[in-house]
């Protein structure tokens, strides 16, 4: 707790200056695409916060109406020198219930195409993980595929190389890192199923949980408003040796993702899909899934640009999301029937952006989920009203 | 701007329109599900029920005490929706029959196989020398409190081990030799009972087993700690030592301190099981169902699947001296060679099974992934197939069913589907 207070004191005392643009050596969609960066050439402080209401019902049973203060995140940016820059993100979730240092990286720019990066980084798995700031999105909830199959926000310690290469009207980006990787929580969790997000651990910021780094990489090509990216993350997640002795077989997780964005007239489409292949001991087969996959597609269309005094760039959007995640793709050997454990959802929304970095949004979610055994669908629905803003 | 606000208000209002199935889904009809507590419980009892429900659903992780060898990670995994479970969570029990009788092969990890294990730990396999293996599909847990509250004397009256009434149906009590575990479980339950002498009495030198496919356990506390231990590898005050894989010759355990669930947790789960409601019937007054009900009695099905029982005194008011309709007599019956797996428990013969309650059988597929798996191991996929596999004491009833005309057969099946 003392450390948190110290960080807050530093945050408040940090001077915010104005000046040159930074971060352009890397993908402008990535971690530097935040409005507070670029205001100056000195250390800068920024962040975002988000809060919302929840009202959900599942098969006629709900917990009632509640408010939720989701996140208060602080960013620190510092151009250490002409070719070196620092960025961090400190997250407070649900007040101080969960405090996490999500990013603390330093970039060494070798030239305009190549930057070396190290520290606590966001592995480039799909698009969302590096672009998860709530004010960027028209939906209160993050996409399921991007938080479960891809366990955003996935922060890991490691280093690698990142860069942008313009070529023939396209902008190509690449990221490649070695990091400490995920741990045994993928199976050792209280969900009773394979849960990739449970493989994250604070301990991995101190040492590799299995002395075997994970590899992550992404390439993308973009032109105008269209983008296509492909990414991979893989490595061992269990501890196969203890004190130099073999105590288990190596088990890997391999994640593949595709992400894209484009526009059809005023309609903007964004989405990503992911497939995870997880090594499961034979003694846990079927109950713990060895394949998970899912996708989301978001559609956003501006429908009105009201003239409101003080809000020069105000816009009202209508939005829709379709998403599906299967946590255990496969079939029962005993019956031949498909294993359930999947969820499909449709979200309809309306949002008001008084300025590009601030959004007020209303979402209606309809969800259908099937349990592990494949029993009749459980139907859920809910309404959320919330806001998110950069500062 | 005003239009946006209006739109938002209207959409929000729609969202709060409870009961409108288009906006917020309503609950499936009570008759199509099995969960829920008994009507008429006090708010404090409902709270305890819900606490137990939460523990029933709790998934154990290896670091929280799961295993190291186990079958399922939670109670709910086997009894999803409180119904009969999916075959993927079948229990497998084994043993061998020798000159001195049935041996549950405890020294080889018997009688229950824990074929799953936490990562890095070896799961059990069926050892050599086994003469009998039986698969037990997890039963529905609905209405268990009623069965738990039936007095011993009721079961003694129902039993007819020597078939003195000459109806071809005997019905024996499952009797267990006293053990510290059984006596502790009975004593703890008797401590809260308004009539402690009504259940858990010494009968024929032992205690009546009433839960499990062969009546392995004497009450819901015994059943609950046994399931935590044998099915999940989770220790409790009454069974404080972890399972380990004896086939590996090691006494290795897991790192979680024992007991891995507290007595409060066990108590809440037992209360939850006790206060689960009885299934709601469907089409109970339909003519074909009523005709099928009459046939059920005429064919002698109801001689074992006794339609109505009565609870004794209970500290839980809604269970105190009430009639209920489980369609079981909780007794052991010889079901003939086709259902004889060569495995047994207690004093039951390998061909003897405790009569399973039939309530809830009409919606069984809602809990087994859309297909029903009938009988103790799910070997029958239809009700007629299940009936036709009955033998032994049920042979006459089975034959009578086979000889029914189509209309009568349909009526009987309609009755079963109404339960």
Could you characterize what this model shows?
The complex is a heterodimer of chains A (about 400) and B (about 425). Chain A starts with a helix and ends with a strand. In chain A, strands 1-2-3-4-5-6-7-8-9-12-13-14-15-16-17-18 form a 16-stranded antiparallel beta barrel. Chain A has a two-stranded antiparallel sheet with strand order 10-11. Chain A has about 400 residues and is mainly β. Chain A has helices spanning about 1-15, 145-150, and strands spanning about 45-60, 60-80, 85-95, 100-110, 115-120, 155-165, 170-180, 215-225, 225-235, 240, 245, 250-265, 265-280, 290-305, 315-325, 340-355, 360-370, 380-390. Chain A has one domain (about 1-390): Porin. Chain A contains 2 helices and 18 strands. Chain B has a domain at about 1-30. In chain B, a hairpin with a 2-residue loop joins strand 2 (about 90-100) and strand 3. In chain B, helix 2 (about 45-55) crosses helix 8 (about 265-275), helix 7 packs across helix 8 and helix 9 packs across helix 12 (about 405-419). Chain B is globular. Classes of the chains: A mainly beta (about 400), B alpha+beta (about 425).
Topology, please?
The complex is a heterodimer of chains A (391) and B (419).
Chain A: H1 2-13, E1 44-58, E2 61-78, E3 84-93, E4 98-109, E5 115-121, H2 144-149, E6 156-167, E7 170-179, E8 214-223, E9 226-236, E10 241-242, E11 245-246, E12 252-264, E13 267-278, E14 291-304, E15 315-326, E16 342-355, E17 358-370, E18 378-390
Chain B: H1 2-15, H2 43-57, E1 69-70, H3 75-78, E2 91-98, E3 101-103, E4 112-113, E5 116-117, E6 132-136, H4 144-148, H5 152-158, E7 174-176, H6 180-191, E8 207-209, H7 220-232, H8 263-274, H9 287-298, E9 309-310, E10 323-324, E11 332-334, E12 352-354, H10 383-388, H11 395-402, H12 406-418
Antiparallel strand pairs in B: 1-5, 2-3, 2-4, 2-6, 7-8, 9-10, 11-12
Helix pairs in contact in B: 2-8, 7-8, 9-12
């Amino acid at each position: 707790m003392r450390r948190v207070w110290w960080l807050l004191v530093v945050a408040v005392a940090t001077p915010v200056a104005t000046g040159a643009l930074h971060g352009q050596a890397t993908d402008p969609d990535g971690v530097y695409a935040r409005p507070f960066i670029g205001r100056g050439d000195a250390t800068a402080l920024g962040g975002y916060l988000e809060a919302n209401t929840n009202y959900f019902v599942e098969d006629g049973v709900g917990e009632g109406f509640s408010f939720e203060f989701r996140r208060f995140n602080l960013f620190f940016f510092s151009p250490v020198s002409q070719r070196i820059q620092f960025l961090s993100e400190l997250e407070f979730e649900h007040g101080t219930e969960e405090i996490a240092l999500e990013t603390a990286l330093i970039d060494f720019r070798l030239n305009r195409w190549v930057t070396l990066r190290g520290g606590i980084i966001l592995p480039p798995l799909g698009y969302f993980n590096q672009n998860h700031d709530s004010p960027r999105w028209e939906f209160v909830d993050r996409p399921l595929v991007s938080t479960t199959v891809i366990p955003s926000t996935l922060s890991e310690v490691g280093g690698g190389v990142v860069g942008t290469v313009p070529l023939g009207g396209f902008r190509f980006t690449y990221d490649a890192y070695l990091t400490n990787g995920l741990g045994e929580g993928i199976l050792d969790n209280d969900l009773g199923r394979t849960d990739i997000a449970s493989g994250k651990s604070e301990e991995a910021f101190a040492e590799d949980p299995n002395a075997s780094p994970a590899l992550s990489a992404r390439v993308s090509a973009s032109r105008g408003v269209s983008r296509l990216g492909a990414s991979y993350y893989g490595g061992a997640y269990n501890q196969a040796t203890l004190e130099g002795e073999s105590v288990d077989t190596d088990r890997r997780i391999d994640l593949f993702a595709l992400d894209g964005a484009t526009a059809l007239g005023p309609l903007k489409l964004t989405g990503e899909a992911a497939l995870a292949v997880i090594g499961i001991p034979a003694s846990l087969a079927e109950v713990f899934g060895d394949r998970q996959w899912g996708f989301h597609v978001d559609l956003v269309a501006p429908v009105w640009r009201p003239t409101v005094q003080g809000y020069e760039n105000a816009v009202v959007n209508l939005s829709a999301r379709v998403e599906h995640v299967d946590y255990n793709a496969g079939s029962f050997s005993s019956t031949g029937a498909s294993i359930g454990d999947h969820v499909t959802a449709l979200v309809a929304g309306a949002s008001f952006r008084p300025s590009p970095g601030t959004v007020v949004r209303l979402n209606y979610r309809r969800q259908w989920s099937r349990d592990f055994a494949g029993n009749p669908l459980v139907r859920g629905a809910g309404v959320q009203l919330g806001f998110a803003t950069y500062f | 701007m005003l239009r946006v606000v209006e739109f938002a208000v209207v959409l929000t209002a729609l969202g709060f329109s409870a009961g409108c199935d288009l906006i917020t889904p309503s609950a499936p009809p009570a008759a199509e599900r099995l969960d829920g507590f008994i009507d008429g419980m006090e708010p404090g009892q409902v709270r305890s029920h819900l606490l137990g429900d939460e523990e029933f659903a709790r998934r154990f992780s290896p670091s929280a005490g799961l295993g190291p060898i186990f079958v399922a990670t939670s109670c709910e995994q086997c009894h999803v929706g409180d119904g009969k479970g999916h075959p993927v969570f079948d229990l497998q029990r084994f043993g061998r029959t020798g000159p001195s009788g049935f041996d549950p092969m405890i020294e080889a990890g018997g009688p229950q196989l824990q074929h799953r294990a936490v990562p890095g730990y070896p799961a059990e396999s069926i050892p050599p020398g086994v003469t009998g293996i039986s698969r037990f599909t997890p039963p529905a847990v609905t209405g268990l409190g009623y069965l738990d509250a039936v007095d011993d004397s009721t079961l003694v009256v129902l039993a007819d081990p020597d078939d003195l009434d000459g109806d071809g149906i005997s019905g024996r009590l499952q009797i267990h030799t006293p053990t510290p575990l059984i006596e502790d479980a009975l004593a703890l339950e008797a401590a809260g009972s308004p009539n402690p002498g009504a259940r858990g009495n010494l009968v024929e030198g032992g205690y009546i087993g009433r839960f499990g496919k062969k009546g392995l356990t004497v009450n819901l506390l015994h059943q609950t700690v046994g399931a935590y231990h044998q099915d999940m590898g989770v220790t409790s005050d009454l069974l404080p030592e972890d399972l380990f894989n004896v086939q590996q010759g090691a006494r290795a355990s897991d790192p979680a301190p024992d007991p891995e669930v507290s007595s409060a947790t066990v108590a809440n789960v037992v209360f939850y099981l006790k206060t689960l409601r009885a299934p709601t019937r469907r089409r109970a007054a339909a003519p074909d169902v009523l005709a099928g009900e009459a046939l059920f009695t005429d064919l002698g099905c109801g001689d074992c699947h006794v339609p109505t029982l009565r609870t004794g005194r209970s500290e839980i008011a809604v269970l105190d001296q009430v009639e209920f309709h489980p369609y079981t007599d909780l007794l052991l019956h010889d079901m003939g060679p086709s259902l004889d797996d060569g495995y047994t428990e207690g004093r039951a013969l390998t061909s003897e099974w405790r009569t399973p309650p039939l309530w809830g059988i009409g919606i069984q597929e809602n809990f087994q992934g859309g297909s029903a798996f009938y009988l103790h191991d799910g070997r029958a996929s239809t009700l007629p197939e299940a009936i036709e596999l009955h033998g032994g004491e049920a042979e006459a009833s089975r034959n009578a069913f086979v000889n029914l005309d189509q209309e009568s057969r349909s009526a009987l099946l309609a009755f079963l589907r109404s339960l």
